[in-house]
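TICKET #2291
ISSUE: user wants both folds in one file
ATTACHMENT 1:
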Amino acid sequence: MTTAFIATTGGHLTQLVNLAERIPPDPDSIWITHANEQSTSLLAGRDVQYIPYVGVRDIPGVLRCVLRAHALYRSRRPTRAVSTGSGIALAYLPYLAARGVECHYIESAARVGGPSLTGRILRRVPRVHTYTQYRHWSDAHWHYGGSGFDAFEPVAADAPLGDRVRVVVTVGTAAEFPFTRLIRALAPLLAPGGDLERATGRPVDVLWQTGCTPVDALPVDATPFLPAADLAAALREADIVVSHAGTGSALANLAAGRFALVSSRVAQYGEAGDDHQRELADELEARGLSTYRAPEDITVDDLLATRKHGVRRLPHVPPFALR
């Protein structure tokens, strides 16, 4: 038996890697995603088929990938397919379901209020099982199987600062949506001689993980993309983490034990296709796993307050319940 794990890079892939650990394994598996610094490091040592990037609402890209789904079926004969989206799921799951493959689509944890466009389409595809990570909108069509955030709980923290203040700012890898507003708001707070340095009496070292956000006009030393292992190490060592409210970044922060200050992209400013990031930010705050601030409202006190909180991974996490 072979399981095909299918996901776009970024938060979709991070979620699938985490959820795959909670799904009964098959003797054989293959991963289908796009190649970048995150995926090649996160999936090192696994059987991976890298395909061209399928963007947001990229209908031609989806149609091209149907041929790859056909090739996968002919070469590997998968018996089960599991996907967390997004557009790549539209290419593979309908084709594989029509071939009799057991197909499961798990809606992203970013979708706190209801399914995405991809989810709404796949819900109507025969023989594709659909899942939500939130009980409050589960129904006969959307089965609640668990949440990727179930693995974490908040804890108190009070670690002293060292000789330097280590900060990680991460805005994920979204190719279509820059988040310049967050970088611009943080730059003066975190600059040499800036507000955080004056408040702590210590120099501030910042890792700016900026993805596709243009920062040439800003006074930051950007690292657009990092291997997953390098980012995880930086998060574990950080004193303060500021993050966009993306699911992949949220899970990476939590896995590193970091209680982050999060800001959400806003559709009105061209930072996202809709405002689901604010819903996720509110969900994380309600769980006690992070705190939310709009970029223009962030203060040094907000940054330092995150150090009073930590996150712990639970020793036992329930399986994700596939139908």
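ATTACHMENT 2:
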Amino acid sequence: MQEVATPHGPARVQLHSADGTAGGLLLGHGAGGGVDAPDLVAATGAARQAGLHVALVEQPYRVAGRRAPAPAAQLDASWLAVVTAVRSGQLAGLPLVTGGRSSGARVACRTAAAAGAVAVLCLAFPVQPPGKPDKHRRAELDGVTVPVLVVQGERDLFGRPESAAGRSVVLLPGDHSLKADPAGVARAVGGWLRLVTGEHR
């Protein structure tokens, strides 16, 4: 466990090393949850089997014990401070995939270019607040210019992203929690990570 100074307080990083050197995967948590969410655990295992080191990132508001998430600009700034830290440390010189679940996926999309990510992994991307299709966040996904994988529950009340050029969408049984089929999450993530990191070897 490592603490990383950010403009909005310390973030916390858990590094899970892999045997290979295919790349690094930086994953963020959802708005109200932690890095022990079932889909993040499944993705971490799959990434390590694919030869990627995984850094699980707790945002400063969670480290400080607050439940309500920080504003988007603060989340993004803290995330990029962690990216800088891991790029000069554990993940130096490796192709970096960024991602997360729900709110963490949004952060990864918004910061993909600034982070120098080679790809973005979105677990349960919240397309819109439940019942409010007019308040969609599709522009965050559409703005990513590197390959994107979205793993989404078929009954996710936060909506369902659509496939597009450079963006794959895998639908699994279950809802926004993605806890119904962790093996499915692992299969989708592992196969995709091998593809996108293989292009940078």
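RESOLUTION: both attachments delivered.
EXTRA DETAIL ON ATTACHMENT 2: Strands lie at 2-4, 11-16, 23-28, 52-58, 96-101, 119-123, 148-153, 167-172.
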